[in-house]
Design brief:
By secondary structure, the protein is α/β, with parallel strands linked by helices. The chain has seven helices and six strands. It is globular.
Amino acid sequence: RGGEGDMGCLVANADRVVWDVIADISTPPPPLDLNRWAEENIVFGAESPWPGPYDPDRMPWNREILKALQPDEACRVVTLRGSAQFGKTTLAMIFTVGSVEVEGGYLLYTHPQEDNAKRWAKTKLRPLFRQSTSLTKAFRPIDDNALLYIERRDGDGAIVVSGARSESSLSMISVGRQVQDDLAKWED
């Protein structure tokens, strides 16, 4: 027993501590659930037709599409066809920011033209980042100098935004995922 003023000493089994750390770092994270992630992390600003937290009940068909976009699903190509203002870009944005935030790596988001890419980054992506706390924490700030290359703060991935006709911005990058937005407007 220690008397008044004695400092206690904790002793740990060094082998046990090492094996506990190895178990923690080698346990894979749970698979990404884009539906749950969107509900917990996506918040739209006043510029959105539906400001506030993402609500899957507004477009219930999105649930199956987001499920198909998850990395543990068998499909590797998901194609969406629909009328304008149907929520396709919102789904693509959830896939983009959710997968890069949670899993890291690089994702290429391609628009028909470089001007479209810049406008999308300024009017859609940047406001989404401002409203969604998890994105603000995970990614470096989006400013006009970093509009087309949005990097994670830890350097473990980025969103590369490009125009389909911009050969220079499409070269020298290897990505594991990509979004090709608004294909009807791409030129051959």
